[in-house]
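Give me the fold.
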Amino acid sequence: MLRPQAPIRSLAVLPLENLSGDTQDYFADGMTDELIADLAQIGALRVISRTSVMPYKGARKPLPVIATRVERGCHCGKVQCCVRVTKFGLPHS
């Protein structure tokens, strides 16, 4: 029998990873910032600040370890997705 899960009260958005191979992380960092800002609009949810999560950028630590270091009781989970951004050349005039 499944146990009912406790509601999520606190959440940390860990820095997104740039998988493009270039060294410009501005897109991944911007998406991280937007996720934090959007989730912070949910009144019943405490979202951990960007300043608190950015030290874990590129960290290869288990999520439960990061969760307890960021804040006790912080939700620990993983979401994986891939966004492909391509560059379109502007036509020459």
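The radius of gyration is 17 Å.
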